Amino acid sequence: PNYPRDCGPYGHGTVVAGLVALAAPEAKIMPLRVLDPQGVGNNWVLMEAIAYALDPDGDPSTDDGADVINMSLATVHQSDILRQFVGEACDDKKIENEDPNPITPPAHPVVVVVAAGNNASDLKMYPAAENAAGE
Fold this sequence. Notes:
Layout: H1 12-23, H2 43-54, E1 68-71, H3 80-89, E2 111-114
Parallel strand pairs: 1-2
């Protein structure tokens, strides 16, 4: 079928959240919109949302971050900075990089689930095509 690109306010991520709620009724869902109604976004907004999900209150001493981050999105464009950021979110050791304000690791490693794409093609879809599990 030919679906329009404009998903309106209730898109694929909302459907996935509904499935999570059905499968795990005790789960707390933290919906964070990173794409506009046409499905367009950028790495900076996505990384800001991941950082928020890891530590919503901004206090690393509290364990209030997500256990699972679902990213119902994909792109054909690979991004080294997004790969590093997602890898660091999955890791429980201190993140060392050139940034003078390194990312504070989560209180526990996080599982990140990403979309693999919808087109049944041989194109690599990112971030799913990355090998970034807890570097």
